[in-house]
């Protein structure tokens, strides 16, 4: 029989106390693991908003963070809209009706407009154009992939593309109609769109988006900007070209909203490099010019998110970790309490073992091994429980954070540190009863026995 | 007398009482126990019998003198080495048997082997328990055994590490008279079979009377004579 065997026997001898001690430790560890993993998922959710094929967001003046949260993560309320004319300043001559380069066209590689304000059964509706899926990327330059169907065509005014989570949660498939509501889930019901495609999962906020052709979006009630009488509605927009270059000039097709009545919520911008200037400097210059103007503001999503993480997410994560660590420490004190509680019984056993020839270090190690076994057992049970907990709330995380979570989601570095941390904690907690065992007066206990 | 397995020379042991008074418990000029010898050590309560066993087994260190166990003067050794000598060369049987309650009969014997120099030998532990008539109760815990069976486990455990001597402290004191003879027979027969010396401390004259050698502690412990006139 080894010291490990003796320690294991001692645990089995006090089975109920041992189980309760391990359980309290397991619950503490489960909380820490769940906090670590969900914290990692939240960070992943924010970090997934970068590398999507744009590096700048242009929107109405206000909070740059709100602009980023709204345009990238589809949370928070839109600040206000920017004018159609301002949007046009970012387009090259080929994409403008007047055939002249916009003011910022030289600094812009891609400008994708988005219009927000509608909802479909709890998910944000985003009016945009075909460039969203043709020119932007999922992250790391990977293009969007469709799990079913295809991108809506420019001339398909009432076509829509669903994120993977939306389609899965609502059970929609290609060809199904869906009618967004205005302003809120209980708002006025708009004309229906039709699902033309369903995106493959991206693990980004896009999974939670309902994307519709902005031409159809503009035609909904309440989406046209009111114009003064003398403006006369302005120039009527031409029907956009279809992907195959043809135009849908069917006399019965819908008429696009005039430009003067259009606004966009924000622009997702991929800035270009001006000749002789690094890309970063071009972006910084463009941002300065836009922010000094009156038409809108430019925000760098990565910088804003980093600031958000530094200011709120990381301190919050740290606070949660601190609280849950305290829970584990309290649980470890449970080991101490349990061992001190059984010290009377233990002293007799220790005295017997010492009389049989056990050295003081033997009985000290037996107590420490017992504590480590309880910590490792409770820790492993807690680790599994923590992952089961994450698995249980995974659908909620996927729906709300737009990243996939499962029982296998992990925070590898921190989780690996948890085991040595627990062992050290258990040893510290068991030190007092172990020293008591070390100092047991053999003669006194044997005579008393 | 044949070669000694145990020898005490000029051993003194005293305790300081809570009031600061120094009380001599042992003052022994000479005591020997030969190899294979079976000896009963008699004495009144408080005559220093238990202290003597603690000093012989190395649980306590004498203030002066030599305590030689199988040729090793354990009075000169540090505690860890005395523990090792106790594990390897002595087997202890207690009045209350002192089995570990959470361990089976077999495990109680194996635990003793854990602290000896050799490796725990399961086969030997089984053989020892078989020899004391408990081959069929290996997996029973002390609470599931009768008093007599517990004492048998204690005897098997005392012999676990092939000791040179077994020290038994009042092994019959907690047993009804009907079983006392069985325990004495068990101890003597088993020690004879294993070739081990036996020192039984007892206050019962009828128990002491069954041993070939019978000594009174008061006859060789001067402190007992002085302190307990």
Describe what this molecule looks like in 3D.
Chain A is α+β, with helices and mostly antiparallel strands and 449 residues long. In chain A, 45% of the residues are buried. Chain A contains 13 helices and 15 strands. Helices cover 49% and strands 14% of the residues of chain A. Chain B has helices spanning 49-56, 79-89, 105-114, 122-131, 147-158, 177-194, 205-208, 217-220, 222-227; strands at residues 4-16, 22-34, 38-42, 64-69, 72-73, 90-93, 165-169, 197-202, 213-216. Chain B contains 9 helices and 9 strands. Helix content of chain B is 36%, strand content 25%. In chain B, the strands form 2 sheets. Chain B has a 5-stranded parallel sheet, sandwiched between helices. In chain B, α3 (105-114) packs parallel to α5. The chains are: A alpha+beta (449), B alpha/beta (229).
Assembly status: heterodimer
Tally of structural domains of chain B: 1
Question: What is the CATH architecture descriptor of chain B?
Answer: 3-Layer(aba) Sandwich
| Total of DSSP H or I helical runs spanning 4+ residues of chain B | 9
Q: Largest beta sheet of chain A, briefly?
A: 11 strands, mixed
Strand content of chain A: 5-15%
* Helix and strand composition category of chain B: alpha/beta
CATH superfamily of chain B: P-loop containing nucleotide triphosphate hydrolases
Estimate what percentage of residues of chain B fall within beta strands.
25-35%
CATH top level label of chain B: Alpha Beta
Shape by Cα distribution of chain B? globular
Count every beta strand of chain A, where a strand is a DSSP E run of 2 or more residues. Answer: 15
**Amino-to-carboxy terminus distance of chain A:** 24 Å
Name the overall outline of chain A. Answer: elongated
The stretches of 5 or more residues of chain B where confidence is low (pLDDT under 50) are: none
**Share of residues in helices of chain B:** 25-40%
The greatest interface between two protein chains, and residues involved on each side, is: A-B, 29 and 32 residues
* Gyration radius over CA of chain A: 31 Å
């Amino acid at each position: 029989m080894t010291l490990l065997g003796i320690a294991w026997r001692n645990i089995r001898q006090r089975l109920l106390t041992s189980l309760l001690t391990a359980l309290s430790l397991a619950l503490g560890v489960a909380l820490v693991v769940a906090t670590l993993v969900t914290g990692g998922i939240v960070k992943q959710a924010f970090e997934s908003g970068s590398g999507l094929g744009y590096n700048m967001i242009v929107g109405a003046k206000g909070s740059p963070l709100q602009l980023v949260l709204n345009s990238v993560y589809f949370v928070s309320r839109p600040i206000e809209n920017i004018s159609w004319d301002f949007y046009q300043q970012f387009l090259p001559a080929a994409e403008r009706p007047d055939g002249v380069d916009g003011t910022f066209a030289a600094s812009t590689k891609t400008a994708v407009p988005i219009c927000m304000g509608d909802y479909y059964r709890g998910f944000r509706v985003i009016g945009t154009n075909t460039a969203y899926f043709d020119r932007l990327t999922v992250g790391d330059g990977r293009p969007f992939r469709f799990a079913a169907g295809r991108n809506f065509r420019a001339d398909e005014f009432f076509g829509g593309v669903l994120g993977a989570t939306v389609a899965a949660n609502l059970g929609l498939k290609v060809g199904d109609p869906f009618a967004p509501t205005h302003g809120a889930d209980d708002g006025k019901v708009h004309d229906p769109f039709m699902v033309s495609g369903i995106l493959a999962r991206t693990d980004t906020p896009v999974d939670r988006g309902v994307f519709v052709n902005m031409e159809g979006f503009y035609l909904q009630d309440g989406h046209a900007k009111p114009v003064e009488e003398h403006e006369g509605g302005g120039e009527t927009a031409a029907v956009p070209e279809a992907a195959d270059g043809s135009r849908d000039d069917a006399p019965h097709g819908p008429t696009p909203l005039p430009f003067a009545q259009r606004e966009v919520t924000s622009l997702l911008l991929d800035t270009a490099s001006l000749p002789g200037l690094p890309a970063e400097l071009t972006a910084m210059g463009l941002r300065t010019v836009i922010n000094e103007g009156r038409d809108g503001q430019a925000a760098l999503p990565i910088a804003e998110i980093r600031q958000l993480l530094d200011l709120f997410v990381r301190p919050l994560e740290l606070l949660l970790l601190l609280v849950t660590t305290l829970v584990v420490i309290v649980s470890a004190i449970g080991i101490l309490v349990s061992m001190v509680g059984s010290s009377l019984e233990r002293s007799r056993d220790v005295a017997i073992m010492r009389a049989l020839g056990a050295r003081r270090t033997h009985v000290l190690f037996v107590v420490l091994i017992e504590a480590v076994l309880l910590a490792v057992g409770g820790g492993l049970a807690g680790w599994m429980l923590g992952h089961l907990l994450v698995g249980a709330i995974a659908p909620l995380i996927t729906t709300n954070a737009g990243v996939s979570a499962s029982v296998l989601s992990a925070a590898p570095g921190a989780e690996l540190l948890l085991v040595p941390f627990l062992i050290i904690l258990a040893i510290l907690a068991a030190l007092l009863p172990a020293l008591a065992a070390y100092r047991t007066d053999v003669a006194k206990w044997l005579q008393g026995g | 007398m044949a070669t000694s397995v145990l020898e005490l020379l000029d051993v003194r042991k005293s305790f300081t009482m809570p009031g600061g008074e120094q009380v001599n418990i042992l003052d022994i000029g000479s005591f020997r126990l030969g190899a294979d010898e079976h000896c009963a050590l008699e004495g009144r309560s408080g005559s220093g019998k238990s202290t003597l066993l603690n000093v012989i087994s190395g649980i306590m260190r004498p203030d002066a003198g030599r305590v030689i166990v199988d040729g090793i003067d354990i009075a000169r050794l540090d505690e860890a080495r005395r523990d090792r000598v106790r594990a390897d060369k002595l087997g202890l049987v207690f009045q209350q048997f002192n089995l570990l309650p959470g361990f089976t009969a077999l495990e109680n014997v194996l635990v003793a082997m854990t602290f000896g120099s050799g490796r725990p030998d399961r086969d030997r532990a089984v053989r020892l328990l078989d020899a004391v008539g408990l081959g069929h109760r290996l997996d029973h815990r002390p609470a599931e055994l009768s008093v007599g069976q517990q004492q048998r486990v204690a005897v098997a455990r005392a012999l676990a590490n092939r000791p040179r001597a077994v020290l038994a402290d009042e092994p019959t004191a907690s047993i009804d008279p009907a079983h006392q003879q069985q325990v004495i027979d068990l101890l003597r027969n088993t020690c004879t079979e294993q070739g081990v010396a036996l020192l039984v401390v007892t206050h019962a004259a009828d128990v002491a009377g069954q041993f070939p050698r019978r000594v009174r502690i008061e006859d060789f412990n001067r402190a007992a004579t002085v302190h307990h006139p």
